Amino acid sequence: MTNEEILKWYEIACAFHTKRAPGLAIGVAMVDLCRTRLGPVKEKLNAISESPSCLCDVIQLMTGCTMGNRYVKAYRELGRFALTLYDRADGRGVRAYIDLDKISASETPELHKFFLRQRSDAVKAGGEERLKSGELVVEEFLKVRDKIIALQEVYIEKFGKSEMLPATRCKTCQESFLRRGAEEECASCSGELKYYRLA
Ligand SMILES: [Zn+2]
Questions:
Q1: Res 185 pLDDT > 90
Q2: What confidence tens digit (pLDDT) does each residue in 36-76 have?
Q3: Which site from 31, 44, 164, 165 is most exposed, i.e. has the minimal number of CB atoms within 10 Å?
Q4: pLDDT of residue 65
């Protein structure tokens, strides 16, 4: 992809994400490199995002791997700015991550601060300063993108069609839910995932 194409996808991604974030432009380049290196897949392209943030949106937008069709998974506990695209048929994949050692603090200072989470307090506070910094991060990134994105050829440990859990009726709320074991109550009623109270 050319820088112009990346910027075009960046705008589409910002609209989808409903805010401007430099990680989206970086993610676009990462997805593109991964897909090119992976080449054609035998079955379905699947994806893993190692963070629940920007990358997940870029993957969904560019690859058609969505939360809804369950072709993308987000490992939020990992919290790394990295992603893997792979073939569901055999688990063959390519992982893209950022090689921090390749980011020069003098050549691309804002990008360096972005990845080390060292942008100024004014930037962290948001607003105009944050937007300006974000665009600068993208500008600097486009100069060095192929140098700082690292690719690894990998095999996914657990791949294939994700299993569909059987549905059953919760004995408390009477709603249908996807059962993970022998439980008779949904995770809301059991308290394990209770996230609301009635108004
Ligand atoms: Zn229930």
A1: yes
A2: 999 999 999 999 999 888 899 999 999 999 999 999 999 98
A3: 164
A4: 96
Q: Render 15-30 in DSSP notation, one character per residue.
A: HHHTS--HHHHHHHHH
Distance 179 CA to ligand 1 centre (A): 11
Question: What's the gap in Å between 189 CA and the centre of ligand 1?
Answer: 4
Residue 165 CA to ligand 1 centre (angstroms): 16
The CA 169 to ligand 1 mean position distance, Å, reads 8
What angle, rounded to 10 degrees, do the helices at 54-63 and 3-17 form?
A: 110
Calpha distance 86→96 (Å, rounded): 11
pLDDT tens digit sequence for 76-86: 899 999 999 99
C-alpha of residue 166 to centroid of ligand 1, in Å: 15
* CA-wise closest residue to 17 among 28, 3, 31: 28
Contacts of 167 (CB under 8 A, 6+ apart): 176, 177, 178, 179
The alpha carbon of 199 and the centre of ligand 1 are apart by a number of angstroms equal to: 17
